[in-house]
Amino acid sequence: MKDMSRRTFLRTSGVATVGLLAGSFVASRAFAHGDEEGVGLQIALGELYFRVGDGEPNAPIELPAGKRIMVRLVNEGAAAHEIHFGRDADLEERFYREDLLGTEGEHGAHGFMAVVLQPGDSSSLMFVIPETKRGEWEIACFMPGHYEGGQHAPLIVT
Ligand SMILES: [Cu+2]
Question: Which top CATH class is 6-157?
Fold first, then answer.
């Protein structure tokens, strides 16, 4: 592994690594990504909640800044759901005015990222939260009526 470039490793082994780990995630479990250790967790989406591992629906989630994070998302509900990471919800435009993983900027032009899952869909999402973004954030689903129905949870970046 040491003689492979990081890019080569990601291209040839990354997908297999994700697949291997996907079925065995529990909340805040360490996982190996090459020589790097990260944090893995599973978040289930349903009507109208997010649930980490075996936790309570919409309970606060804590994630570390500056570390590789792998989130396994599973839509166990009967409707399509999505997950946004941010704060200051705009319930007309249906996004966060400040996105955890987007860049700074004017309202509506800051960029954001969301994952959309149809019923039964699952996905593995990998990211690093910048150390400048420690603090209180939120995850939410902005499908019509879902945020209003309670599908959001506090996200604490430490
Ligand atoms: Cu939803």
Answer: mainly beta
Is 9 in a helix, a strand, or coil? helix
Q: Is the entire prediction scored with pTM above 0.90?
A: no
**Cα–ligand 1 centroid distance for 154 (angstroms):** 16
Domain edges within the chain: 6-157
Mean pLDDT on 63-71: 94
Centre of ligand 1 to C-alpha 78, Å, is 10
* Nearest C-alpha neighbor of 43 from the set 123, 148, 154, 156: 123
Ligand 1 midpoint to CA 116 (Å): 9
- Centre a 10 Å sphere on the Cβ of residue 86 and count the other Cβ atoms it contains: 23
